[in-house]
Fold this protein.
Amino acid sequence: MKRLFIKTYGCQMNEYDSARMADALAPLGYAPAETPEGADMVILNTCHIREKAAEKVFSELGRLRAEKRRREAAGEGMVIAVAGCVAQAEGAEILRRAPFVDIVLGPQTYHRLPEMVARATRAADPDRRGLVDTDFPVESKFDHLPAANASGIGAFLTVQEGCDRFCTFCVVPYTRGAEASRPAADVIAEARRLVGQGVREITLLGQNVNAYHGAAPHRVGGGPAEWGLGRLVRALAEIEGLSRLRYMTSHPRDMDEALIAAHRDEPKLMPFLHLPVQSGSDRMLEAMNRRHGAADYRRLVDRLRAARSDLALSSDFIVGFPGETDADFEATLALVAEVGFASAFSFKYSPRPGTPAALLERQVPEAAKDARLARLQALLREQQQGFNAAMLGRRLPVLFDRPGRYEGQLVGRSPYLQPVHVAAPDALIGQVAMVEIRDLKTNSLGGALVAGAAATASQQERLSA
Ligand code: SAH
Ligand code: SF4
Ligand code: F3S
């Protein structure tokens, strides 16, 4: 048995891909390892979204070189592969700065990995150049990778990849390529398999997931050739045994009526939506090429809340985009105050090579970015704490997914992804039960099972609505 260590950076899509790569290498005799020490193969699945994320890869490679030397001194080999978005964006640079890397492959070519590993381990010459995926033909990776295997109660399922939106700050359209959706039938088949393996909650993934437009499963009597995300969600919700559905990440402009209606009609679709707005200033939104204004976002939130009154929102924000003034930043604070977010991620703008915004004049000084980020995060933290505190005394459906730290305790997730600790029997793992929230911890909630809580999942999810 050979040992495979994968380190994953960046978004959930990379997590999904890492699991697929592990599955693809299993037939070659690779089993997962917890650390790079003593591993026969190490894959860094990288992220290029901000400068810090990309730089981490080179420092990790420095550490791996030492480990590879140790292994080689002991007469053992170690294959190092760099995958993901840095590999796509800076493949040549990686081989130049780190010539001991054996394999460089971008996110669209993971199905080539077994072949590349076989070639890398066959090659006897230790000075041979690294293998790069551009030496291999381009095909859809999903047609060749093994289907996802479940290892828990929750699972990710990639339904679309790439992005055609070209926000001016973002590398994703360059690293993940053009927007492409998987056929609905493939997604449904994978979801059924996952549920058959014990999965109860599926999060549909895509860089711009609500732009999903997959081929319809079967066209009888002139039905639509393609399905949008709303239609897909409805089909997936019919899978018996599946309790919960989520999706991320969405673009406000791609939130259509069918998807909003799915939030209204489909109790399995959780009332928690990650809907990044980035800024509350129309000027900045325009410069970012987001193609909507702050008022459009407010209206969209109103429509979503009208469809599902208990819907909570999270978002991403960028502060210090080129040309951002104090007034622009105040507009962001005003939007946050008005909308109210259950949680959020916020970042200082990081100029990325090859993106239009990196070339703009009037880059914001680092000190101003720091100050704005601190103010925004203080407000977002306050909102998050308020949101969690509002759960006290409420009854929430909790999907239990693992044992807790103490004997007789389980941990589950609320509809809003808050971890909830409850005294409950192991038999409830994989089930939804009603929990009365009784205490508030820093990053989680505590509660007690409501007597007679073992109703069906959908009944319980409805109770929370
Ligand atoms: N596809 C998603 C998210 C893409 S990346 C979307 O459309 O929202 C996740 C987040 O990283 C973005 O929402 C944005 O807030 C942030 N981000 C992307 N590029 C960035 C950059 N150059 N500097 C700082 N933050 C960035
Ligand atoms: Fe990047 Fe998201 Fe914009 Fe696409 S929609 S360019 S992934 S921020
Ligand atoms: Fe990062 Fe690529 Fe995801 S840049 S955020 S790993 S799409």
Summary: DSSP finds 13 helices and 21 strands in the chain.
